[in-house]
Design brief:
867 residues, alpha+beta, paz domain, Rossmann fold, nine-stranded mixed sheet, seven-stranded antiparallel sheet, PAZ_dom_sf
Length: 867
């Protein structure tokens, strides 16, 4: 029986009280002037180029600003410096207008004792002078901080963030890393791999909330980050690959090892060692590639005769005419370089998620160490107006009723966890696989026969489990390949053979490939490329998971018992939806109309962007779009399209084309929709206007399609919601033995009202139960609501749509159409990578590339969920 519980929730937000002050905004510029070559080097930048690391740059800039402010005070006849708040780069706030330029000659600059050696070496090398300027910001030179119209300006949030950070930054207890992250500089801990360190930090941001009136708040969320250790690259390589690079012989690594080494070292910023001067230099150079032939090159060995590790590979540094080959031991990693997410995953360094009580305790420690309500905050009239831990900010949450979940028969939804057990219940729509093919590729195995046996065991178990769930399998076959060499050509030959099947050209014929491999480089992208080119659905399973499934089933089946394996069940669920089936449905409670009764068209949108390096190479952004235009209204299918790099707004023509085709398919089955629900992910703060424009384009496209079919007065009701997960608001319920320990809220809990962004209808909805760590509850911003439904209605609907994932028997954190759109955008990025890998060429005609790689032109994959 579902029980409705309305919990009291604590938050990680603290109110700010502002006194009336006129705040002056300035732009600070610091330059190193090379007068001999008539060049200027900007110092007020935190980019990786130029001298030093982020910590030394930040400290140098504060020192130089202090010199300027002292001269300003002297000019005004003041003994004390003016009150100021500075971000360590270009933004300065004061209580009076300042306009001043200061020149510091080379000789005087070198005498400043606190300046870093990085900056002093740059000054000496260029024989340059320093120029420091502070001028009013012409866009907005001043503002009154208590005027409410200022509070809607994103720059006002940046001001509050800088003012509340001065004690932490000036004391050097914290380093301003990026995007609101402040790292505790005295808490660096060496990780088990020794080439990386972990730093504890806090994400701090300011925003305006309130249902009845605006309230500025400070938001604090503990966040750890991982840095590369500041060690020579030779030491890093030997720590990372202790068995692969012995110091006494040259190594010719396989593709897997080459990929891992390049992933680790590429784009690292380093200080070089100059053998002739016997010093580590302060200039910065960047690793661009790894060269395994350098140790064999007589010219390289002659150039570097005194190496301790002459057998290790070398690295290419720089690009173009400045490109050069350097030994690993002559490069030391620059401090405070964050480790890329892909490296963390490759080396299994992703940090452990903190439980709610740990996170709350860490939050208290950071609050004490940050030094809030200091003299700077008092001068600027900004104060935290409540004791955040003895007088905790709390708000009422609301727990809605669980959705109704059904396979072929209804299942029981656990009231506390909100998950369900399907056991042997058959799928709602079991798929038919006309020809099933198992393919094994083992690039690095030493137990080939055992791997083949495990694959055959799991293949048999897979087919039996498909039968249990109501699926039908016609014929099946198996193929296999041993070794890294030739694995991609083998994969291509498998699909070439499949497309020659006598029934292949019949679009109702459904082949399916279950592909099993170890970690062969690029094999997943190549598999999905072959899937797209052949119009044959596939599922990729790692060999190590096949072995675990085999061992688990054998262990559980001892004594003749029936054995279930959760991973195997998940694979069967994926196979069913990829072949056109539907596993289960989830409906909102009966007081709201379900999609079977009221024709409802649901669309999800997301955009995946290339990283900065890939964007510089010209890689596109990828738009992912999904909707419920399949045979069953609870099934979400979709496609992806390429667009200009780093473009967040979806182009009008892309939306029109996808919506028109999809809603016409929807109308053929269920008529034109009475309701349209739109979920948009990935919209940043302040970009809701662009999202509203997208909603209008979708609505007009649907109306135009309906009008062309004779529905002249047609006007569906629209509900449009922006989904945001990239925020730092956290919620804590009370639990434990004594009822006062911070715990995660229960699934299907929603919170709105007083903590919503001021002037907006924002609801935080936690549909899921966190497996580990503290829940990150998505924000749902309602930007259009034609029917004026209640927040409770929105929460019930969202929780039901989060329960339509199909791949697991529990809700996800974001609605299924958004999840599918997100995965389709990722798939498009992967297919572009495979296209580049196979063809070796850049492509900037995004429309043509979309036609070549997307699914909309295919007979099979365009009609099913492929991710």
């Amino acid at each position: 029986m579902n029980q409705k519980q309305n919990p009291r929730l604590a938050l990680n937000i603290f109110g700010l009280e502002l006194s009336e002050r006129t705040i002056f905004r300035h732009v600070v510029q610091m330059k190193l002037i090379d007068r001999q070559h008539n060049k200027e080097y900007i110092l007020t930048t935190m980019s990786a180029r130029g001298r030093g690391n982020r910590a030394t740059k930040q400290k140098d800039n504060f020192i130089l600003l202090d010199i300027l402010l002292k001269q300003w005070a002297a000019k005004k006849g003041q003994q004390n410096l003016p009150a100021f708040a500075y971000d360590g780069a270009q933004s300065l706030f004061t209580l009076e207008g300042i306009s001043l330029m200061v020149d510091i000659k080379k000789e005087d600059a070198l005498e400043i004792p606190e300046l870093s050696n990085f900056l002093k070496d740059s000054i000496s090398f260029l024989s340059g002078d320093l120029e420091i300027s502070c001028e009013p910001d012409l866009e907005k030179p001043s503002f009154v901080q208590t005027e409410l119209n200022e509070w809607s300006d994103p720059r006002f949030y940046a001001y509050l963030d800088i003012v509340t950070s001065q004690s932490a930054i000036r004391s050097e207890r914290y380093l301003s890393q990026s995007k609101g992250l402040y790292v505790h500089t005295q808490s660096l801990e060496e990780l088990r791999v020794k080439w990386a360190v972990a730093a504890k930090g806090i994400h701090k941001g300011c925003r305006i909330v309130g249902a009845n009136g605006p309230l500025p708040i400070l938001e604090l969320d503990p966040q750890s980050t991982q840095y590369y250790a500041s060690i020579p690259l030779s030491q890093m390589l030997q720590y990372a690959f202790p068995r692969d690079f012995p110091p006494n012989r040259i190594v010719n690594p396989n593709m897997k090892l080459q990929r891992a080494v390049k992933l680790l070292l590429k784009d690292l910023k380093c200080n070089p060692y100059y053998d002739d001067k016997q010093i580590w230099a302060t200039n910065t150079i960047t690793v661009s590639d790894v060269d395994y032939n350098a140790p064999k090159d007589p010219e390289f060995r002659q150039k570097y005769p005194n190496l301790k590790f002459p057998m290790l590979p070398a690295v290419q540094c720089g690009t173009g005419p400045h490109k050069r080959l350097m030994p690993l031991e002559y490069l030391k990693v620059l401090p405070y370089q964050s480790i890329d997410r892909r490296v963390l995953e490759e080396f299994e360094l992703t940090p452990r998620a903190n439980a709610p009580n740990e996170r709350w305790s860490t939050l208290q420690k950071h609050y004490d160490q940050f030094g809030f309500n200091d003299q700077v905050m008092k001068d600027f009239g900004v104060q935290i107006c409540n004791d955040p831990f003895n007088n905790v900010s709390e708000i009422d949450g609301e727990r809605v009723l669980a959705p109704s979940v059904a396979y072929a028969d209804p299942v029981h939804v656990d009231d506390e966890k909100r998950d369900w057990k399907a056991q042997d219940k058959k799928f709602v729509t079991p798929a038919t696989i006309d020809h099933l093919m198992f393919v094994l590729v083992a690039g690095y195995t030493r137990t080939w026969d055992a791997d083949c046996d495990a694959t055959k065991f799991v293949a048999k178990a897979f087919m039996q489990r498909c039968k249990d769930k109501g699926m039908h399998i016609g014929s099946y076959s198996m193929d296999q390949h041993n070794g890294e060499r030739g694995s991609e050509n083998f994969l291509t030959s498998v699909f070439k053979n499949l497309v020659t099947h006598p029934n292949y050209r019949d679009s109702s014929f459904t082949p399916f490939v279950l592909f099993i491999s170890d970690d062969v480089p690029n094999i997943h992208e190549c598999l999905k490329f072959e899937e797209r080119m052949s119009d044959i659905p596939t599922q990729h399973v790692l060999l190590k998971n096949v072995k675990k499934m085999r061992d688990n089933i054998e262990k559980k089946s001892q004594g003749g018992r029936r054995a279930y394996d959760l991973t195997l069940d998940n694979i069967v669920m994926k196979a069913n939806i990829k072949c056109g089936g539907l596993n289960y449905t989830a409906d909102i409670p009966r007081d709201l109309a379900c999609w079977n009764e009221v024709s409802t068209f649901v669309i999800g949108m997301d955009v995946a962007h290339p990283d900065r390096n890939a964007a510089r190479e010209g890689n596109p952004s990828t738009v992912g779009l999904s909707c419920n235009s399949a045979e069953n209204p609870y099934s979400f299918i979709g496609d992806f399209l390429y667009t200009d790099p780093r473009r967040e707004a979806i182009q009008d023509e892309i939306l029109r084309k996808f919506t028109d085709q999809s809603v016409r398919n929807f109308a053929e089955i269920r008529g034109f929709p009475k309701k349209v629900i739109i979920f948009r992910d990935g919209v940043s703060f302040g970009e809701e206007t662009a999202a509203l424009k997208e909603v209008e384009i979708i609505e007009q496209t649907i109306k135009t399609a309906a009008k062309s079919m004779g529905h002249s007065d047609y006007a569906p009701k629209v509900l449009a919601i922006v989904v945001k997960k990239r925020h730092h608001t956290r919620f804590y319920a009370k639990g434990g033995h004594h009822g006062n320990m911070p715990i995660n809220p229960l699934p299907d809990t929603s919170v709105g009202g007083d903590i919503a962004e001021y002037g907006k209808r924002q609801i935080f909805i936690q549909a899921f139960r966190p497996v580990q760590g503290t829940a990150k509850v998505p924000s749902f911003l309602v930007i259009r609501d034609d029917e004026e439904v209640s927040d409770e209605h929105v929460a019930k609907m969202v929780c039901a749509v989060c329960s339509l994932h199909q791949l697991v028997n529990s809700p996800t954190s974001i609605p299924t159409p958004v999840y599918v759109a997100h995965e389709l955008a990722k798939r498009g990025t992967g297919l572009y990578k495979a296209y580049r890998f196979k063809n070796g060429e850049l492509f900037d005609d995004w429309e043509t590339l979309t036609t070549q790689l997307s699914y909309s032109t295919l007979d099979r994959l365009s009609k099913v969920r492929v991710v």
